[in-house]
Structures are given as structure tokens and as C-alpha cells.
Amino acid sequence: MKIKIVRHVVSLCWVTMVVLLLTGCNPAAGATEYEVIYPSGYSRDSYAYDEKSPIEGSSCYLQWEKADDYEKTYDRYTYPG
């Protein structure tokens, strides 16, 4: 009789622990995201995809374009959104 009670208590503890661990899962946990705010007020973050980004203190811009193999290497499930 005591062994049955102990087994039920241990089983209940395991189930509770698994449920708590699963509900605590956060895909973004441990990730750090930075936003760069320039003195002019312009800001950049990981979601900003402007064709041209100004370089503070100069009249130059950074320009981006897709690589030829972008579709092969891009994993849409890696990024939230």
C-alpha cells in the first residue's frame, strides 16, 4: 500500500515538473537583441531592412542587396515574425 502511494507521488512530481518545463519554453529565451540609435534619431534593429542606411557623420550610405543564393540559405523559421 505504501509503495503504491509513493509511486503515485513520484509520478505526480514528474508530471508536474514536465508540465512546468514545457510551459516555461520561450523560443526567444536567451536571445539578445540590440537597437542602434544614432544621434540624428535614426535607428536600426534586426528587423529594419532599409535599402540604404546612413552613416552618421558622413554623406555616405550603406546599401544592402540579396545574395544570389539567399533563398537556398535563408531559414524562415529561425527568425520570429
Characterization of this structure:
The protein is α+β, with helices and mostly antiparallel strands. Helices cover 32% and strands 12% of the residues. It has two helices and four strands; from the N terminus they run αββββα. Strand 1 and strand 2 form a beta hairpin. The longest helix is centred in the N-terminal third of the chain and has 22 residues, at 2-23. The protein is elongated. The mean pLDDT is 76.
Q: What distinguishing features does this structure have?
A:
81 residues; alpha+beta; two-stranded antiparallel ribbon; elongated
Write the layout of secondary structure elements.
Layout: H1 2-23, E1 36-37, E2 43-44, E3 52-54, E4 61-63, H2 70-73
Antiparallel strand pairs: 1-2, 3-4
Which strands sit side by side, in order, in the main sheet?
1-2
Order of helices and strands: HEEEEH
Approximately how much helix is present in the residues? 25-40%
Structural class: alpha+beta
Roughly what fraction of the amino acids lie in strands? 5-15%
With helices defined by DSSP (H or I, 4 residues minimum), what is the helix count?
A: 2
Q: What's the main sheet like? A: 2 strands, antiparallel
Distance between the termini: 53 Å
Described by the principal axes of the CA atoms, the overall outline is elongated
